[in-house]
Amino acid sequence: MVFRVHSFELLKACIEDILSTIKPGEDDQKKRSYAIQELADSIYSVGALRGATVKPFGSFVSNLYAKSGDLDVSVDLWSSSRIPISKKKNQNALRELRRALQIRGVARSVEFIPNARVPIIQYMSNQFDISCDISINNYPGQIKSRIFYWINTIDERFGDMVLLVKEWAKSQNINDPKNGTLNSYSLCLLVIFLSSGNCEPAILPPLKEIYDGNVAEETVFYDEKHVDEICVANISRFLRQNMGQRNQTSLPRLFASFFSQFLGSWDRSSTVISTYTGRFERIQDNPSWLAKPYSLFVEDPFERPDNAARAVGAEELEYIERAFNYMSGRIVGGALDDRDQLVSLLCTPSVGSILGGIRANRCTNMPSSCQLYSPVAANQYDIQHRQQSRGSTGSRSSSQSQGYTTGHQAAWPDQYHKPQAYNAGGDDSRTISEYLSSRG
């Protein structure tokens, strides 16, 4: 790929500014921690849900979230058998939760979506101004988050790419599955696809080499430590095998390559983007992919043969392709030499307005809230308060009970920016090498 020098340097500067603006800091993490405990305390007021455990997942756990990102939370209802509950029971539990949130006045814009593939409640936290998506017993989401957390430790460019791509997609209105465009999970998979079998040398391995399982079939036996051990062992092997062959592509060039990757003559109607294998696959080669036609097929590597981009419609796909084409043309062709135009193309107006304020002094005197943030643990903020008695339900094992429980009332600070951080003190704050050392 050929860049004009001026445009490339401009892109590099804009990327640095965008990342310094959207990456969360300690205050953002604390807000989310308290929003989770706020939810747990609301659940405690519902007799039918008392004893449930509140577990964050998604981008917060995988450390792939931006300051403006949503917070995904699973309310895990204890069952000795771990057999999936019925959709009706799932819906009824969410109705009880919605009532509790409204009674306690902790939420606004509460929306109950009972007939979604995974029923959820969406709301805004009044105190912390965070958008929350709540589901019941979302073990697949928790497993995927753990895997993504470890993937994110392989190379820092992956996390930066995910944040940049999601910010760009939001600015182009193509990150909204409700309206037939891409969800954030499929955008992450597209970044992985570029970083695995489609760059040389590969930054990431095909995902089958990290976790070769189907989480939909494994939730009954789900154990976080077991998932961690599999991921760490496989990632360590990949790093050993590729020692001395690290991909040296700069982040701006990798970002620019992302848009050209999905151009070309490949047939969307007969091709699957597979991060499981790290390459394009033909739909006719796998009968399970033929069950339902899709406009765009991005295979879910952890719930095969599901399509992570199943919400994308035919008309919306054309819009998505135009956005990719336009972005690639402007960057590769060197036609965009104006910083303000580039900012408007790469990020949302809210982020663009912040960038305008730091333009003149990009590298010095950066406000503390805009400093680049060093990744922290996936579960650093888990609270392991256990109820003194569960009656006839018994007790959970330690691997199942980590999380925010509903049997504890938190003491709330007067202002969210001055709290003590919750810390479960688990292994999850460690790097791969530290994790391996701790296990002898």
UniProtKB/TrEMBL annotation:
Residues 389-407 have a biased composition (Low complexity). It holds the Pfam family MTPAP-like_central. InterPro entries: MTPAP-like_central (IPR054708), NT_sf (IPR043519). Signal peptide: none annotated. It comes from the Eukaryota. Residues 384-440 are annotated as: Disordered. SUPFAM superfamilies: Nucleotidyltransferase, PAP/OAS1 substrate-binding domain. Residues 13-149 form the Poly(A) RNA polymerase mitochondrial-like central palm domain. Transmembrane segments: none annotated. This is Poly(A) RNA polymerase mitochondrial-like central palm domain-containing protein. It comes from Urochloa decumbens.
